[in-house]
Amino acid sequence: MTQSIPYGRQHITDDDIAAVTKALTSPYLTQGPTIGQFEAAFANYIGCKYAVAVANGTAALHLCAMALGVNETSKVITTPITFSASANCIRYCGGEVHFADIDPETLILDPKAVRALLEKNPKGTFAGIVPVDFAGYPADMAAFRELADEYGMWLLEDSCHAPGASFTDTEGKTHRCGDGSLADLAIFSFHPVKHIACGEGGMITTNDERLYRHLLRLRTHGITNIAADFTEPQPGDPERGGWYMELQELGYNYRLTDIQAALGLSQLNRADAMLDRRREIAARYDAAFAGTAVKTIVPPEGVGHGYHLYVIQVPDRKGLYDYLRTKNIFAQVHYVPVHRMPYYQQFGWKQGDFPHAENYYAHGLSIPMFPTLTDEEQNYVIQEVLAFVHN
Q1: Cβ–Cβ < 8 Å for 158, 233
Q2: What is the pLDDT of residue 71?
Q3: How far is CA 19 from CA 260, 262, 378, in A?
Q4: What's the half-sphere exposure (Cβ side, CA atoms, 13 Å) at 320?
Q5: Helix (H) and strand (E) counts in the chain
Q6: Tens of pLDDT along 262-316?
Q7: Using CA atoms, how far apart are residues 191 and 2, in angstroms rounded to an integer?
Q8: Residue 130 · residue 160 · CB < 8 Å
Q9: CA-CA distances (angstroms) from residue 187 to 4, 266, 359, 375?
Q10: d(CA 313, CA 27)
Q11: CA distance 165 to 115
């Protein structure tokens, strides 16, 4: 194979280019109508009431933490197997991050481990939970909702890996990741290797109108130009006109541009087809690695995996990683456990705190998974993974 095969890759079509070109030649490059169109279309796709487009997934997490009231007194639980932004957003607001271990069969934050942590502390100790739909496998948000209600906490679902993913609860009801039926807020990312690419970009989804209106202010410096939200005029104030706006709290410039929204809207038009292709690729991997030393995560019936990543676990992860690179296959590791990062070690986290997460990290590798991966390329990846493992 002379061409390199990355673990993920964006797919840009002529329709995408035409959509961006149209945005570039329109009167608005930012804060124009395309952003609202993208938000409405994305909310419809996910199945929620409201969507707020922002600069990136990290900005989405930060704004959610602010809207949920995270501060220096807040203690929040999340998973060690995630990109660090899932935890960092709590630190941005001065909060304290606590981790709980993953379920080794799903690699997702384990509700049982979270319950054990909650039961060790007085009620009211923790403010919220940030479950992550890692690799595209939907977290059991019904179980987390039950915990949140029992202990008076909020839920922020990190769905960056899982647009279109879903699960069926014990009562037979299907929930789409980020649809607002269980989590107070959910976030998505439009980084190039994600399902929908905007270059950079993110989205917050919710069914809570109060949170929605708050997020609209926070993404634009804390400013509102909605007359119904204005404070009462003070004596001696000049008459207000159409120009009037209010800075009501300290926010950020976390806006998405119309250029990025145009690309995202175009990509959203084929989101289902791209998800179907990811699942087709995953099924071929599942079949190829069944009965071998390559451990895979095969979701049970009722779990609609989103397959941002296809993760395998092997005895010699470092050896396989290095070997594949000699074959022009650029696999990746997702992720170094957050509690093992030097920044978080200063708070006392150490090796051995979360055995399931650490065991996964020692063996896990993400192999190529993207819709334009050809059958020939996938066969080559399978061939080389098995060649290394068998030898």
Answers
A1: no
A2: 98
A3: 10, 6, 31
A4: 28
A5: 13, 17
A6: 999 999 999 999 999 999 999 999 999 999 999 999 999 999 999 999 999 999 9
A7: 26
A8: no
A9: 31, 20, 28, 32
A10: 50
A11: 25
Contact 194, 160 (CB under 8 A): yes
3-state secondary structure of 337: coil
Q: The dihedral of CA 287, 293, 296, 301: what is its sign?
A: positive
Tokens linked to 340: 């093992």
Name the residue type at position 23.
Answer: A
The dihedral formed by the CA atoms of 369, 372, 373 and 374, expressed in degrees to the nearest 10: 160
- 324: tokens are 């594949």
Cβ-proximal residues to 30 (8 Å cutoff; 6+ apart), any chain:
255, 256, 257, 258, 259
The pTM of the full predicted model, rounded to 2 decimals, is: 0.97
Q: Are 177 and 132 in contact (CB under 8 A)?
A: no
| 3-state SS assignment for residue 76 | strand
Scored b (16 or more CB within 10 A) or e, 222-244 reads bbbeeeeeeeeeeeeeeeeeeee
* Amino acid sitting at position 307: Y
Tokens matching residue 378: 């996938």
142, exposed or middle or buried, with CB in 10 Å at 0-12, 13-18, 19+?
middle
- Scanning the chain, the segments in alpha helix (DSSP H) are 14-24, 33-46, 57-67, 85-92, 111-119, 141-151, 209-218, 258-268, 271-289, 317-326, 342-345, 355-363, 375-390
pLDDT of 1 strictly over 90? no
In angstroms, the CA 383 to CA 288 distance is: 9
**Contact status, residue 227 vs residue 26, Cβ threshold 8 Å:** no
CA count, 13 A, side-chain hemisphere, 188: 33
pLDDT at site 305: 98
Give the pair of three-digit tokens for residue 11: 């797919």
Q: Is the dihedral of CA 121, 126, 128, 129 positive or negative?
A: negative
pLDDT of residue 2: 83
Contact 81, 113 (CB under 8 A): no
